[in-house]
Amino acid sequence: YRRLHTKERQLSEFNQTEIKAMLGSYTKVLFVRDPFHRLIAMFLQGMGISPSFSSFVQEVLDSGKHNGSVAWKPLVSLCRPCLIQYDYVVMFGFLRQELGHLLRRAGLPAGSLLPELTDSQVQWTYRWLSEQMFSELSAQQKKRLSHFYRWDLAAFPFSSSFLSD
């Protein structure tokens, strides 16, 4: 979509007609990840100053949805899947399969462009990490996290998420 100005602008700065035209001219792909896995990855990358996963989760919960980092905000509040009709939703843990499909749809040779992804190993590792990290949390933290990410859990099929319970 042609830019109306040279200055970069947020989607919310355009009027409804412009937004509709822009969104209609792109193939929209949303990459999603289990919110609990996102928290684990952020903790392991040192995004919080907390010495333990439990205290990191408490930081996230205390910061809330409005003051928290974009890194751990619920996806629904960032990507607006109820307002924007995405053409594809790609789940972390199924990247090789889903990216291959996207590349074929775009007319590109999927096999030669994809990095070597071992989805089953990634899923197993995150399952193990989730069990370890989840056991560190108090019952109240588990309940608050499930509530914090309730819309993500409702919008996307994270059926095996520890937060779904």
TrEMBL record:
GO biological process, one term: dermatan sulfate proteoglycan metabolic process
Keywords annotated in UniProt: Carbohydrate metabolism, Glycoprotein, Golgi apparatus, Membrane, Signal-anchor, Transferase, Transmembrane, Transmembrane helix
Membrane topology label: Single-pass type II membrane protein
Enzyme Commission numbers on file: 2.8.2.-
Compartments where located: Golgi apparatus membrane
GO molecular function, one term: sulfotransferase activity
InterPro entries membership: Carb_sulfotrans_8-10, Sulfotransferase
Any one annotated GO CC term: Golgi membrane
Broadest EC class assigned to this enzyme: transferase
Family the entry assigns: Belongs to the sulfotransferase 2 family.
Protein name as catalogued: Carbohydrate sulfotransferase
Organism: Ploceus nigricollis
Gene assigned in the entry: Chst8_1
